[in-house]
Design goal:
Blueprint (H helix, E strand, L loop, with lengths): L30 H14 L5 E6 L1 H12 L4 E7 L13 H7 L4 H8 L1 H5 L3 H11 L11 E2 L3 E2 L15 H14 L2 H5 L6 H4 L3
Parallel strand pairs: 1-2
Antiparallel strand pairs: 3-4
Helix pairs in contact: 1-2, 6-7
């Protein structure tokens, strides 16, 4: 089919910078900045038209890129990301979690608690085993969508079967570069007056 595949990291993940908010502006993690980055990347690659796909927060970005740059994007696809139309008013994460209880874990990620407790490579490995379904000797989980990470279970988890050793270690190293703070930056807590700029 002749397609070239390019898979950029979202700001704060992988090989990108991970500016801390504060002192840096939350706009560095906003949809508009991500959309501008995608447009710039396409330009640098000489791609006048692109098919754009994304998963999770990347899927949310896909929709915004298509809205802001319709002449660039010919088709889109997303995985696990329903379309959410831009809104003029801010909806706090707590209100979203009340409506969608399976989002409760995002409150824990946004709280800053995870980045304070997950620092070493071993703790990052436990974190990844938890979110990828690793279980303890008695079948206990390390992660629950209504609670988040189950701290007491993390040290007991066996390695997840969803990632081979090489892949798990790759992600441990990626998170070790900037820490788990990027999980918090993905769930910003802006003031209502700021959110309309994203």
């Amino acid at each position: 089919m002749g397609y070239r595949v390019v898979c950029p990291d979202i700001m704060g993940f992988g090989g990108t910078d991970a500016p801390q908010v504060p002192p840096e502006s939350m706009a560095l993690y906003g949809f508009k900045r991500a959309a501008d980055d995608i447009k710039e990347l396409a330009g640098q690659l000489g791609a006048g038209k692109i098919v754009l796909g994304g998963h999770d927060w990347g899927g949310s970005i896909v929709y915004r890129v298509a809205l802001w740059f319709p002449d660039l994007v010919t088709h889109i696809f997303t995985v696990c990301t329903p379309y959410q139309a831009p809104k003029k008013s801010f909806t706090p994460l707590e209100a979203i979690a009340q409506r969608l209880p399976f989002w409760d874990y995002q409150l824990q990620l946004a709280s800053g608690e995870v980045e304070k407790r997950i620092r070493s490579r071993n703790e990052i490995r436990q974190f990844l085993n938890a979110v990828y379904g690793g279980r303890g000797p008695n079948g206990e989980f390390g992660f629950d969508v209504r609670k988040g990470l189950l701290w007491e279970n993390l040290p007991r988890l066996n390695k997840t079967s969803l990632l081979d050793d090489k892949t798990l270690e790759y992600y441990v190293e990626q998170y070790a570069k900037n820490g788990i703070a990027s999980t918090r930056e993905a769930f910003p807590r802006p003031s209502p007056s700021y959110f309309h700029k994203l």
